[in-house]
Amino acid sequence: LFAIRTIQERTGKDLGATFLSGTTISNSLTELYLLFKYLRPKELERQDIRCFDAWAAIFAKKTTDFEFNVTNNIVQKERFRYFIKVPELAAFYNEITDYRTAEDVGVDRPDKNEILHHIPPTPDQEDFIGRLMKFAQTGDATLLGRPPLSETEEKAKMLIATDYARKMALDMRMVTPDYEDHPDNKASHCARMIAEYYHKYEAQKGTQFVFSDLGTYQPGENWNVYSEIKRKLSEDYGIPAHEVRFIQECKSEKARKAVIDAMNAGTVRVLFGSTSMLGTGVNAQKRCVAIHHLDTPWRPFDLEQRDGRGVRADNEIAKLYAGNKVDVVIYAVEKSLDSYKFNLLHCKQTFISQLKSGAMGARTIDEGAMDEKSGMNFSEYMAILSGNTDLLDKAKLEKRIASLEGERKSFNKGKRESEFKLESKTGELRNNTAYIHAMTEDWEKFLAAVQTDKAGNRLNPIKIEGLDSTDEKVIGKRLQEIAKNAATGGLYTQIGELYGFPIKVISERSVSDGLEFIDNRFVVEGNYKYKYNNGHLAMADTHAAATNFLNALEKIPSIIDQYKEKNAVLEREIPQLQEIAGKTWKKEEELKGLKSELVALDRKIQLELTPSVSGTISEQCEQIPKNTSINLIRDYTIDQQTIPKQHYRRNMKL
């Protein structure tokens, strides 16, 4: 920052530094503040944004999530979740970015074929899910087979709960090694899928990547998910152990390069790794046919980097033998956070991509309720673990609504452009037609008055005011004097006539090589002002000067033809523009229906997640958090007409 400010101070402007990145936003729109702070300090200052709080006050909105604390009371937790004025934020961002996708620059790479592989929970997982829900509600860590929470851990209860939920979804042995293997756990499903791809592309030696940031391989460790899946591949599916490798085994750059070369050669067929060790800097895509995600990373950027190991240029096997597609398999245990977390990343990636490309349609976006610093909010955590799919339905609805709003924005933009073009071209056609009519009158007037000699050549009976001569040299010399000395003050001033058409001169300011001077130009005027070889330069030849005006009138038919050609083009374009401008967006009702559906679903979720209260009216009111909104108070089982006045003052925030 100090270096960039030093550069910017030299010019006093937001100039001098260029950032180059494929991932300017890796996870959250809050990251944009730093980008603006570095590159647009003057503009931030102009907008009176001098710190993050000021930026957030304009573009972000804090939300309150409700949780139970360890004493079973409802507590509020604030965080940034919603971003507002998104189109303005996108415009601000696009002022300083030049964004190109792989498609924009013509990178030849395979398509990504995402497959969400649902896995029913095992009996052990079902049991543990129930205990997780009780732990999230009570904070009783002994339910999970661990010591009670410390004072520090109590503040991070939902992060601990989220972490346990992730481990449980991957494999129960991640929670404690006391659990046994199960034929329906994630390791078993993944091993089966890997084996299917292995045998399907055996002739081509197709390769696969397997990603997990949990349960990674540690040398000397008794049990980990990587080794468990490798064991199943070897024992259950007959895949040679030396063809399955872990990136963590590579202790040197030389060993790492050898494994990458072996993947490209097809002698290693399956490579396991974490996002940090395998997600970047690995060009082993030559034979990749599938990528497996055992868990979902925290950031959209990380998921994109993982997929980039196979969805990459120079993937020969996918291009020649797999329909130019790489299958990306995401393993999701039902009633776990897997699907929600993946959908959340998808939604984030969608609006990040829309923001970068300037195609953002919605004014507000929701970043979701889950992050790596505090885990997940209590309400949504409980809903997902209980098997309530309303929140996933909500995510899908919001994604569809955002997509339709973007589509409508693009449609309306195209329609407005067509309407503007239609108005412009219709006006141009109307004006051109008027010019043609006016110039046709001039041409007919000229033909009626024109005189010819015996050879049929048109005569040039030009008359210059104050000059009684028909000699071309005398007339030309007089015109040269007028061209040199006239000063009309920017007004057309008559100096003569030809066949009843006034000849006029006008003094205009001109600039050449940085020097300003007065330039006198001539016209012969009918319904239209005709110029031909005009100005002082054309006056160098007295004969040319005297005959310029006759030549200008003789040019009228060619000018008319030019306007007719323009009109022919306009008459072809205008019906096409009328058709586009007359169209209506056909999905408006669908969008309205989806929005109504979302409102109803939000209401349903709110009612389902509202904790019940009991006791006398006063006791019930005491259980409601301070500053709870009236809408939320309605959801408590209280007749608000009978709430004592002191509780209205305490609780209700209008």
UniProtKB/TrEMBL annotation:
Taxonomic superkingdom: Bacteria
Gene3D superfamilies: P-loop containing nucleotide triphosphate hydrolases
Keywords: ATP-binding, Helicase, Hydrolase, Nucleotide-binding
TM ranges: none
Domain Helicase C-terminal: 227-314
Matching SUPFAM superfamilies: P-loop containing nucleoside triphosphate hydrolases
Pfam families cross-referenced by the UniProt entry: Helicase_C
InterPro entries noted in UniProt: DNA_Protect_Modify, Helicase_C-like, P-loop_NTPase
One GO MF term attached to the UniProt entry: helicase activity
Name of the protein in question: Helicase protein
Species of provenance: Bacteroides intestinalis
